[in-house]
Automatic annotation (TrEMBL), chains A, B:
Residues 28-82 form the HTH cro/C1-type domain. GO terms for molecular function: DNA binding. It comes from the Bacteria. It holds the Pfam family HTH_3. PROSITE patterns: HTH_CROC1. This is XRE family transcriptional regulator. It comes from Chitinophaga barathri. Signal peptide: none annotated.
Length: 86, 86
C-alpha cells in the first residue's frame, strides 16, 4: 500500500484562496439544487458525510481531488463541471 | 481570518482513490508538455514548488481545490480542463 496524502489539515488560507473555496461552495450548492438533491441525499450517493457537504458549500473546505471526483459521482456529472463556474 | 482547511495529511488512500490520483497525474503531465513547459517552468508560473508538481504527476498527491486552480493559472487553462481526462 502506497503512502499517499488525502484529507486536509486545518491551517490558515489566504484571502485569494478563500475566494476560490467560497466560489466553489456556491457552485456546488447550485449544481446540487439543480439536481433536486438535499445535502443528505447527495451524501447518500457518495462517500462524503452530509455535514462535510454543508461545510464545503459554506466555503469552509479546500477539498481534495478524490473528494471532487466523489461529489461528481454523487451528482452524476463529469468532474470537470465542478470547476466550470465562470 | 477564517480558520479554513488547506493542505493535506498523510494517511492511506484506497485503491480506487489511488487510480484517480494517478490518472490526474498523467493528465497533468500531458497538459504541461502540450504547453511545452518543464515542471520547473510551470512552478515559476504558479505558487507550487516544482518538486510538488513532480509528485503530483507521479500520482503521489491528492491535491486540493486551491492547488488545482493555481496549476490552471500556471498552465493558462480553465481549471475544468484539469478534470477533463476521459
Amino acid at each position: 500500500m502506497m503512502l499517499c496524502v488525502n484529507l486536509i489539515c486545518p491551517i490558515m488560507v489566504n484571502a485569494e484562496d478563500r475566494k476560490i473555496i467560497v466560489k466553489f461552495g456556491k457552485h456546488l450548492a447550485k449544481l446540487r439544487t439543480e439536481k433536486g438533491l438535499s445535502q443528505r441525499e447527495l451524501s447518500h450517493r457518495c462517500r462524503i458525510d452530509y455535514s462535510k457537504i454543508g461545510a464545503m458549500e459554506r466555503g469552509e473546505v479546500n477539498l481534495t481531488l478524490v473528494s471532487m471526483v466523489e461529489l461528481a459521482r454523487g451528482l452524476e456529472i463529469s468532474p470537470s463541471l465542478l470547476l466550470n463556474w465562470d
